[in-house]
Each structure stands twice: as structure tokens, then as C-alpha cells.
Amino acid sequence: MSGQDENPSASAADNIIKSGVMAFIRQSLAIVDTELRKIARDPTELFSRAAQPVLWLMVFGQVFERVHGIPTGRISYTAFMSPGILAQSILFSAIFYGIAVIWERDLGIVHKMLVSPAYRSSLVMGKAISAGVRGLSQAVIVYAVVFIMRIKLQINAASLLGVLAAVLAGSAIFATFSLLIACVVKTRERFLGIGQLLTMPLFFASSAIYPLELMPHWLRIVSRLNPLTYLVDALRGLMIYGGQSVYGFGTDFAVLGVVFLVLLSITSKIYPRIIV
Amino acid sequence: MSDSSVDLSRYAVRTSQLTRYYGSLAAVDHLGLEIPSGEIFGLLGPNGAGKTTTIKMLTTLLPPSSGSAFVAGFDVSVDPVQVRRHIGYVPQLLSADGALTAEENMTLSARLYSMPRSERAGRIREALRFMDLEEFAGKVVQTYSGGMIRRLEIAQALLHRPDVIFLDEPTIGLDPMARHAVWDRLIGLRKELGLTVLLTTHDMEEADVLCDGLALMHHGKIVVTGTPAAIKAAVGPEADLDDAFVKFCGETIEEEEGEYRHVRARRKSIRQRG
Asked: Which of B94, B99, B140 sits opposite A108 (nearest CB)?
């Protein structure tokens, strides 16, 4: 007799958990599929977002490289800031993701989803993964610009998979954070104000465009609490030839993973409040 | 009010002392409602009467402040997921995604309701056919007329074969032709599928033509309930529902319900439907 037969209640509980997990995955993927179809039908947004990283790398980066004022070790300043600019693109595109949900709420789409028996967490997870896919398009743009600028990239399976994971995690974190803000502030106007207020401090309190050692002590403490710091750190070690992770990939991905799970759990709880 | 399984199977919706406060304001105030299975039931009332709040509580979008509500035999507070499995909902707002085709909108619904892949295509075809939209299945919803969008939304709500369907102002902003097309389909729902329909409306003609039973709400309470004929008869021999509305709700000037953003969204929705 199998173990399952010996303990039918444990087996039934296992089956409930398995079917719950499968339903969660299927429902999340349904949201991702829908978002991807929308992007495929109108990819304008992806192209318009290309302007910012190009400007940062080709104008700001090249000018500051000539200053020679920022110690970047064995790599050039443009090589140093490239992962930071990828992280910035991810942040800037994901942090305004919540506004789309406010729009969907105003249209009634969110109401209909919330009346379905789908897990609330799957609705949030689906949005987070979709933001990740948008983030990957940013990665393609930044890689192309970096390649044109003749910055030496790490092109091997492990590095590329690592960058893929970091981009997905970073996008998911900031998109979920954005959904959380949308659920709290509820209006587009307030959301835009808070979004603007958050992006630049998050960006400057990270090692995106200067090393941690250059920061004053207080800013270094703030940067340690900023998930963008760990995203930049992972990308710097994975993306650029000669780039190094200060905290180590284990710490970087552990922090990103924990932050995402905490945000997912909070946002899933308060997601239904967006319509109240 | 006595509680028994016989009553729960007889009534698709049953509320007792159902109340919802917004701050100190009782938007729905100790509501008692019994809607027999298989009926089209209308909630009428001026803006701010509490119709939409009632629907939101019955569809589990909003938790009640107090009281109880059973929908399709399940308690909305205790077992909201079971309630969601057994209901369909068409919000007042424009809820179909305009960037997707009708088929994609329907597929998303099917997947969120965990419908088996083997049944999906057949059920989608069936629901679209029932709403006369099969030939437009592959078209992006942005190209649809207001009436077609509303029929698509009803098709989406029917896809998982619910026991009760909730429609919040189903014909608001539609031209007379589109309005009649929606009415025909709603009558078809009751006749062919035996579904219970709960709708809110401002439209007295709609209430008269469609509904087996009506409840007039005012300031969060039900002021009168009965068949359209009985409600009209209670006012006078020549009375229509407009007269009943004025008599029981005591006002003819309508104020729009909800916060600024709700009003703005509603007006935008009406504009989008042309």
C-alpha cells in the first residue's frame, strides 16, 4: 500500500495544495499572456522608453568619463554606469506600472477580475511578471547601446541567465511596489506625484552612477535599505567584463527575493481596496 | 428571519439587516431582500440610494459593515470564493479590455475561472453566439459599438455558467436599438438558461419590461418591493413606474452618486459607448 493510501487526509491536503499552486500559476500566466498580447499589438511604449538609457549612456556617461573624478577601479566610467542605467530603466518603467491599474480600475476591468475566484496574489503576480517582460526589453536596448559603445560585456550563459533573473526580479519588485502605492493613493494625480517623489531618491541612493565608497555615511546606510542597490550590484557583477559585485550574488538575489515576497504578500492583501 | 436550506435553494439572493457604512453615512441600511431563483429582479432608486453598494456587497467586492447576505446559497462574508464561482458580474463601467479581441477577453475570463482548456473554445463560442457576437470574435473591442461591448461583457459574465448574474445599470448610455438588443438577450437568459438576474437601473421602462420583481431603494433602505404591476397599482389605477418612483422616493431631481472620480469615470464610460 502506498504512503498516500495510508494517510488519506494528508494525501487530500497535498492534492488541495498542488491544485491551488497550479491554479495560482495558471491564473498568473493568464494575466501575463494578456499583457504580452497588448504589448505585441502596440509596442510603441517599449521603443519610446529607449530614449532615456541612450541619453544617459551616450551623453551623461561619455561626459563624466572625461572628468575622471569618479573612481571605478579597472573598468571605465561608462562600463561602470551601464548596469546602473539598466537598473534605472527598469525602475523608471516599473514604478509607474500602478497607474495602469488605476486606469483599469476606472474602466471596471479590475472590478471584474476581483469578482472572479482567481487568487488575488495571482492577479498581482501576473502584473509583476508582465513588468519583468517589459524590463527585459529595456535590457535588450541597454545591451545594444553598450555594444555600440564598445564596452566589453560578459556574454556567456551563466551571466545572461543571471542578468535575466535580476531584471525579472527588479522589475517585479518595483511594479509590485507601484501597485501597492496605487492601492493606497487611488487617484492618478496623487500617484504621479508620489511616483516622481520616489524615483529620484531611489536612484540617487543606490550605486547606479557612483560607487558606494563615494557616498556620505548617512547615504550609505540608506542605500543598504534600497533594493535598487542590490539590483545594480548584481547587474554590475554579471553584465560587464571586469565588473564586481560588492555584496556577492547570494546576498543580492536573497535580498531581491525577500523584498519581492514581502511586497507580493502585502499588495495581494490590499489589492481589493483599490476599488473602495 | 428563519434560516433553512429550503429557503436558500428557493432564493438566489437573500439578505438580512445588510448594512454598509462609509464613515458615519449608512449607504445601505439594514437591507432585507429575497430574490427567488430564476427571476429578473430590479433594484431601482435615485442616485445615492445604495444600489451599487448593495451589488458590490453581494458580489464580494465590498465587505458588509453588518448583517448577512447569501448568494447562490453561500454567505458572502464566510465563503466569498464560492460566491464568486457561482455569480457573473457586469459592472456599470466599461469593463471589457479595448486593447484585446472579444475572444481574448473571453479567454482571460475562462482562465481566471480555471476552466479546463478542453472546454474553453466551445464555451466561448457558445457564449458569444448567445449574445450574437460570434462573427466579431476576432475583432479588437475598441472597434465595437457600445451595445456590442455590453453584450460582450454579458457573454463574459455567462462563460462559467453562473447561477446568478449581477448587472449594474446594464443599458446606461446605450441608444434605443442597442438597449432593446440587450433586453432581448436578458429575457433570453431567463427563458433559456433559467438564470437569476439582479440588475440596477434608473430606467423605468427597462424595469417595467424586464423585471419580474422590483425593489425601490431610497437612502439605503427598501421603500417598496413587489411586481411592477403591484407597485404601480399601489400608487393608482393609471400610475406608471415614474409615478411610483416619485411617490416612494419623494424626489424628482437626481443627484449623481459617488465621489468625483466615480462620476468622472461614469461619464467617461458613457461617452466611450457613444
From this structure: B94
Residue B204 covered by a domain: no
Nearest chain A Cα distance for residue B167, angstroms: 12
* Chain segment B6-18, per-residue pLDDT in tens: 455 689 999 999 9
Q: Which residues, including other chains, have CB under 8 Å from residue A274's CB and lie 6 or more apart?
A: A101, A102, A105, A110, A182, A183, A186
Domain final position from B169, B190, B211: B190
Concatenate the DSSP letters of all residues of B239-266 into one string. Answer: --HHHHHHHHH---S----S-HHHHHHH
Complex-level ipTM: 0.83
- Residue B243 grid cell: 409615478
* Residues of chain A with C-beta less than 8 angstroms from the C-beta of B153: 112
Q: Which residue has the cell 499552486?
A: A21
Q: How far apart are CA B104 and CA B197, in angstroms?
A: 25
B212 falls within a domain: no
Q: In this structure, what C-alpha cell is assigned to residue A22?
A: 497550479
Q: Where are the beta strands (DSSP E) in chain B?
A: 11-22, 25-36, 40-44, 66-71, 74-75, 87-90, 164-168, 196-201, 213-218, 221-226
CB contacts < 8 A, A to B, total: 85
Chain B CB within 8 Å of residue A272 CB: yes
Q: For an interface test with A, which of B61, B101, B112, B169 has the most A Cβ atoms less than 10 Å from its Cβ?
A: B112
pLDDT tens digit sequence for A75-99: 899 999 999 999 999 999 899 889 9
Query: What is the SS3 assignment for B191?
Result: helix
Domain assignment present for residue B57? The answer is: yes
Pairing type for strands B11-22 and B40-44 reads unpaired
The rounded distance, in Å, linking the Cα atoms of A30 and A127 is 10
B81 touches chain A (CB under 8 A): yes
DSSP codes, A45-79: HHHHTTHHHHHIIIIIIHHHHHH--S--TTS-HHH
From B62, B95, B112, residue closest to A30, measured CB to CB:
B112
Range of the domain at B148: 91-190
Residue B272 pLDDT class (50, 70, 90 cuts): very low
Q: CB–CB of B95 and A34 under 8 A? A: no
Of B85, B91, B108, the CB nearest to A117: B85
**Strand, coil or helix: A127:** helix
CATH number of residue B123's parent domain: 3.40.50.300
Whether B112 and A117 lie within 8 Å, measured CB to CB: yes
Are residues B93 and A107, on separate chains, in Cβ contact within 8 Å?
yes
Position A6 scores a pLDDT of 61
Q: Does A58 touch chain B (CB under 8 A)?
A: no
Quote the CA–CA distance of A122 and A132 in Å, as a whole number.
Answer: 15
B273 within domain boundaries: no
- Residue A112 with chain B: CB contacts under 8 Å: 89, 91, 95, 109, 153, 156
